[in-house]
């Protein structure tokens, strides 16, 4: 009888472990989908923000296009009802833009590099446009104290396989490497400094989690936002005037520079 009870107990434990592993896998997949959707929302917000009373975005307001152009227009009609709602909301609930005292002037060299890249967009860093951004922004922004881990993070960001998730107070990390290398809730794995870490990252499907400080998270997020926008341009999802696209790239570059210098939002 005791042997049977022990067998039954082992069976129950195995089933519980299997269910837990399946649940954790589903949770990771769901969080990955959420990250993708958040990136899409950010890109869509960028498109909506560029539509102002003085300079309406003709992709969001097809009724403003000339009849000849409207005939040949081929849009991404993924959800016509949603698109109509966006257009309606943008046209009815127009709010004045905040007054900005910042002045801008296009740098002819940077703009020429961007235009040349946009003719045949690629993620190959050998292009003058991306090569410069790698040297001046991406590289420095992802250059952390722990060089080996920094290289892995950089590779995961480039391949779009890095996951960032909040750390639940009751969650224990599932790690396959030394705890020292993964940091902890009170130690950042990238800087090696004692910091309160509210987030952790996973590189690909390795199953290893690394705790990161708010500052390191801001730096990684800034680079990821840049690559997300670049990928959207490459895939033809951004329908804007080339100069507007250029200025969005410059804004994202500025975010990387600020993050590298240690500035980050309080909600990080």
Polypeptide structure, described:
- Belongs to the SEC2 family.
- The protein is built from 9 helices and 3 strands, in the order H-H-H-H-H-H-E-H-E-E-H-H.
- By secondary structure, it is mainly alpha-helical.
- The chain is elongated and about 85 Å long.
- A hairpin with a 5-residue loop joins strand 2 and strand 3 (209-212).
- A 3-stranded antiparallel β-sheet has the order 1-2-3.
The ordered string of helix (H) and strand (E) elements is HHHHHHEHEEHH
Low-confidence stretches: 48-95, 172-177
Envelope shape: elongated
Report Rg. Answer: 23 Å
Q: What's the average pLDDT?
A: 78
How far apart lie the N and C ends? 56 Å
Number of helices: 9
> Sheet bearing the most strands, described?
3 strands, antiparallel
Helix content: 55-70%
- Structural class of the secondary elements? mainly alpha
How many strands appear in the DSSP assignment? 3
Strand order of the largest sheet: 1-2-3
SS strand fraction: 5-15%
Write the layout of secondary structure elements.
Elements lengths: L1 H48 L17 H5 L8 H13 L15 H12 L8 H14 L5 H13 L2 E5 L12 H4 L16 E5 L5 E4 L1 H21 L7 H19 L8
Antiparallel strand pairs: 1-2, 2-3
GO molecular function, one term: guanyl-nucleotide exchange factor activity
Protein name: R3GEF factor
Pfam family, one: RAB3A-like_C
């Amino acid at each position: 009888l005791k042997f049977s009870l022990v067998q039954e107990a082992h069976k129950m434990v195995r089933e519980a472990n299997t269910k837990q592993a399946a649940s954790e896998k589903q949770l990771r997949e769901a969080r990955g989908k959420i990250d993708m959707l958040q990136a899409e929302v950010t890109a869509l917000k960028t498109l909506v923000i560029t539509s102002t009373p003085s300079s309406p975005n003709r992709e969001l307001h097809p009724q403003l296009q000339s009849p000849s152009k409207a005939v040949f227009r081929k849009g991404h009609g993924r959800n016509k009802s949603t698109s109509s709602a966006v257009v309606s909301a943008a046209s009815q609930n127009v709010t004045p833009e905040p007054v900005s005292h910042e002045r801008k002037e296009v740098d002819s060299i940077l703009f020429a590099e961007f235009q040349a890249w946009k003719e045949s967009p690629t993620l190959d860093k050998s292009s003058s446009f991306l090569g410069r951004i790698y040297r001046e922004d991406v590289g420095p922004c992802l250059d952390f104290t722990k060089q080996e881990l920094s290289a892995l993070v950089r590779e995961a960001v480039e391949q779009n396989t890095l996951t960032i998730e909040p750390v639940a107070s009751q969650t224990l990390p599932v790690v396959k490497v030394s705890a020292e290398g993964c940091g902890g809730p009170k130690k950042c794995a990238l800087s090696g400094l004692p910091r309160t870490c509210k987030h952790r990252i996973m590189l690909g499907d390795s199953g290893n989690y690394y705790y990161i400080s708010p500052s390191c998270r801001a730096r990684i997020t800034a680079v990821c936002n840049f690559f997300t926008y670049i990928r959207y341009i490459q895939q033809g999802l951004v329908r804007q005037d080339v100069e507007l696209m250029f200025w969005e790239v410059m804004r994202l570059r500025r975010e990387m520079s600020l993050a590298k210098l240690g500035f980050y939002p309080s909600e990080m």
